[in-house]
Amino acid sequence: MSAIKKPVVIGLIGAGTVGSGLIQLFLREKELLEQRLGFPLVLSSIADRSIHSLKMDGLSQFKLTTDPMDVISDPEVQIVIELIGGIEPAKTFLLDAINRGKSVVTANKALLALHGEELFSAVRTHGVDIAFEGAVCGGIPILRALREGIGGDRVLSLKGIINGTSNYILTKMTEDRISFSEALSQAQSLGYAEADPTFDVDGMDAAHKLAILGTLSFGVPIPFSEIPVDGIRGINELDIEFGRELGYVLKLLGIAKDHGTSVDLRVHPAFLPEESLLAKVDGVFNAVEVTGRALGTALFYGRGAGADPTASAVMGDILELARGIHSECTLQVPPLGFSWDARHPRPMTPRSEVKSEYYLRFMAHDRPGTLSFLSGILGEHGISIESVIQKGRKKGGSVPVVILTYTATQASIQSALEIIDHSHHVTEPTVLIHVERVSE
């Protein structure tokens, strides 16, 4: 007769979209989870302020409460899962659980980006684990890949489409040739965008995820406030059309590069060559392209949000932590993939020193000497021109002139545009969009 195997007990705080998805996954796959673990996994208690309005079969087997402290203070609970989102009270709940010697799982990207170092320090002090795969790109196991799968390689750079709302909007603008406001309205009607889409379309959601990706890639603390962020709110369908003509597709990218003495992290729209894999990632899907010294380039692709993909990622974290607890061997892999003592701060690359190719659209007066003036100012600032497009003629009016540059620093581009935009040759500020080439 086989011995009774001691279970690992977990408790959940937050039964919203992702939390409900996690409960359903647990109920549906309970037998599979035990087969994978080799011992029982017990979901003991669930806390949510609206718990009694939650409609789901099988809830009667759990302890249900509106008070998260009932979960945190339960001596049987060994892993606390936080899925309420936001900064507070989520941070307080997690720190309280850690201080009580419990391991924790969270999908809270904003909290990790802004206060992750405090949480990581606490788990180190108390000898417990923290896992957060669900915080970045939903069902794509990109964090585990960075931490373990390619942990023996040096990550040189990554760039990714890491916000599904913005990617859906840009996809609709490209495919249907509609405006930003029209595409946003469609996204909201389908539930892909919030009533207040600020965090998504202004790039903050992507920046939260990029901060986490950056610290796992390069082994350095990332000061979130120093990440430059530009969203897609100001994107004009005219520029998408010019990009199409030039063989490019517009995406909102999170970019991280290791320059040795500094690290370069930024979020902004960028044109990608239409033949690149990232350019083909459409709709609400996410993808992250990682370039390693030995690996070369690899692409991770999948659904970046939603109840089921994120619940799947959270469950993977739970299994990982449960194995450590059952074997009495926590912290086998540091949560950030680097030993604590190896994580030394490095400066962020100043935005002025960022090197890129650029797409520039001028609304220029249609008269002799204008194109010569534009190219002359760029040349004076060391900016070489790759190609030029001028559309139409409008005597006495303005016409779009598009210039693609070779690699230049952002400082030189901005200095040139400062002169051009204050000249009598253009009628409105220049549109500037980065151009990202395919990784080698």
UniProtKB/TrEMBL annotation:
Keywords: Amino-acid biosynthesis, Membrane, Methionine biosynthesis, NADP, Oxidoreductase, Threonine biosynthesis, Transmembrane, Transmembrane helix. CDD domains: ACT_HSDH-Hom (cd04881). Pathway: Amino-acid biosynthesis; L-threonine biosynthesis; L-threonine from L-aspartate: step 3/5; Amino-acid biosynthesis; L-methionine biosynthesis via de novo pathway; L-homoserine from L-aspartate: step 3/3. Signal peptide: none annotated. SUPFAM superfamilies: ACT-like (SSF55021), Glyceraldehyde-3-phosphate dehydrogenase-like, C-terminal domain (SSF55347), NAD(P)-binding Rossmann-fold domains (SSF51735). NADPH binds at K109. It comes from the Bacteria. NADP(+) binds at I13, G14, A15, G16, T17, V18, G19, S20. It catalyses: L-homoserine + NADP(+) = L-aspartate 4-semialdehyde + NADPH + H(+). L-homoserine binds at E194. InterPro entries: ACT-like_dom_sf, ACT_dom, Asp/hSer_DH_NAD-bd, HDH, HDH_cat, HDH_CS, NAD(P)-bd_dom_sf. It is an enzyme of class 1 (oxidoreductase). NCBIfam families: PRK06349.1 (NF004976). Belongs to the homoserine dehydrogenase family. This is Homoserine dehydrogenase. It comes from Leptospirillum ferrooxidans (strain C2-3). The lineage of its organism: Bacteria, Pseudomonadati, Nitrospirota, Nitrospiria, Nitrospirales.
